[in-house]
């Protein structure tokens, strides 16, 4: 594995507020952030403002294109924003102050990766989700299996071409899960170029002061709160086909048990008429909630279910583990859950397997309690601090390849 000859001094370019600026924030806390470039700082990442450069006019242009433009305009503006972001950063001479590492994110890093390579700067690309060709293949199959939920995706050659060129230009590629790594290898990226660095989060706060003691402990460890026959299964995320919602709803209709309820928390991003026609008791669509209120939904649940068919490495699963919830999910969610330890891993799109896994945990409180306790232990691996250590180590070693789990 190649190692950097000097301590890393990292320039990070990040469009948007992905993971609340976890990458630049963690690198700053370890003393190796040279500068963070972003469009518009949306959260306090704990980084001094004199180490942050913002391009607010670009952020406004992109926001307007996404809000008022046609579907074609919205699609084109995504790639346009990535290219403009890169060109504006290059105009500021980002490699001039002793930087020896560049860290960028997929489709918003190409021009900087080319420049870094020419300047002898080690260019790292984070592939935040499965390659578009893999995602579209999965989504096309799902749209045909569950018609009416979402349209079959339209091919996007320009996006895929930019992805591929970024893979070629990057000295190394970081991703959050084996699922993404396998997708990259399938698309021809050398396995030795890829380093799996699982993410990390801290548990969201519980907003109800009366429930503050439950901030890191699930309802199933507090059986005195409710009758043993009651069980709440929680889903958090966008309510859409990609997240496996039709599969979850099919499973819910098969689980006819007194005291069982499903709470789906998140914005509706599918055909709402189809959703309303499909939802039956005991499923309740909660809709979007503020992040500050999310902890209370985790704290009031017994099981977390996230049957996604295509992800990078879903943050909500890390949050559920941090709140001590047993998790039922799929390999495609890119999680750190181990089958039979912190929960169950079932094949994506397999309604029978999802139904059986949920039914097993609903019927066996002792089993889900053991998994809940294991989830709290696993959450140490999935913490922000542990993620920061993994990230720093991968950069210091030059991200020459390897696996994080």
Account of the 3D structure:
The chain is an alpha/beta fold. The chain has two domains: 10-200 and 384-396, Rossmann fold, CATH 3.40.50; 209-381, 3-Layer(aba) Sandwich (Rossmann fold). 41% of the residues lie in helices and 15% in strands. It contains 14 helices and 13 strands. The chain has helices at residues 22-29, 56-68, 71-91, 110-119, 132-145, 157-169, 178-186, 245-254, 272-278, 291-299, 315-322, 351-363, 365-381, 384-396; strands spanning 10-14, 33-38, 52-54, 101-105, 122-127, 172-175, 194-196, 231-236, 260-265, 283-287, 303-306, 327-329, 343-345. The strands form two sheets. The chain has a seven-stranded parallel sheet with strand order 3-2-1-4-5-6-7, sandwiched between helices. Helix 9 (272-278) links the parallel strand 9 (260-265) and strand 10 (283-287). Helix 4 packs parallel to helix 6 and helix 11 (315-322) crosses helix 13. Mean pLDDT is 91; it is low at 211-215, 222-226 and 399-405.
